[in-house]
Amino acid sequence: MKNILIILTAGLFLAACQQSEVSSVKTDSDLKSVQAVATTNMKFEHRLSAERAQVGVPYEIELDFTGSSDSVLNTEFSSSPGLQMLSNAAESFQMNKSGQADTHTIRLVPQTEGIHYVNIYEPGSKQKPSVIRVIAGDKDIKEYLQTPGEVIEQEDGSKVISMKADEG
C-alpha cells in the first residue's frame, strides 16, 4: 500500500513538473516583448558642476541617458531633505536611433551642510532607484558620517551608540 502511494505521489509530482515546463516555453513574440522590457532599463552617466556643493549656491548635475533606440524614457527625480530641487520632478526623454537622449541638467540648491542624495527612477519599474550623492560643505567627509553619540563596546564585543535623551 505504501509503495502504491509513493508511486502515485511521484507520478503526480512528475506530471506537475512537466506541466510547469510546458507553460514556461515562450514563442518568438513573447521573447520580443520580454527583451523590450529588459532593454528599457534606465542607464545614465552623470557629471557634477563641482566636487562639492555650497549651502545656498545653485548646483548642477548633468545626465546622459541611454536606453532602447527610438523609445521614450520616463523618469522621476526626488531629493533628500536639505536639498531643494529647482528642476522638474518628472521628465520624459526621447531616445534617438542610437539609444541616446539629449543631456539633461538637474538644478538644485543645498539648504544644509552634509551628505545629500538625488534619487532617479523610472516610474512603474521594479528596479531600485539610482542615487547620486551630493556633498555640501567644506568639512572632511568623515565629519558628516560621525554618529550623534558615544560608541560604547559591550562585554560581548557588540557596539552600542549611547545618546543623551531630552528630558522634558
Model description:
With 168 residues, this protein is α+β, with helices and mostly antiparallel strands. Helices cover 23% and strands 36% of the residues. It contains three helices and ten strands, in the order H-H-E-E-E-E-E-E-E-E-H-E-E. The longest helix has 22 residues. The radius of gyration is 26 Å and the shape is elongated. The N terminus is likely disordered.
Number of E strands: 10
Strand coverage percent: 35-45%
Q: Given the C-alpha coordinates, what overall shape results?
A: elongated
Secondary-structure class:
alpha+beta
Written as H for each helix and E for each strand, in order along the chain, the element string is: HHEEEEEEEEHEE
Poorly predicted runs of 5 or more residues = 1-40
Strand order of the largest sheet: 1-2-6-4
What is the strand and helix layout of this fold?
Layout: H1 2-23, H2 28-39, E1 43-48, E2 59-66, E3 72-79, E4 83-85, E5 90-94, E6 104-110, E7 114-121, E8 130-136, H3 141-145, E9 150-153, E10 159-162
Antiparallel strand pairs: 1-2, 2-6, 3-5, 3-7, 4-6, 7-8, 9-10
Write out key terms for the chains shown.
single chain, 4-stranded antiparallel sheet, 3 helices, 36% strand
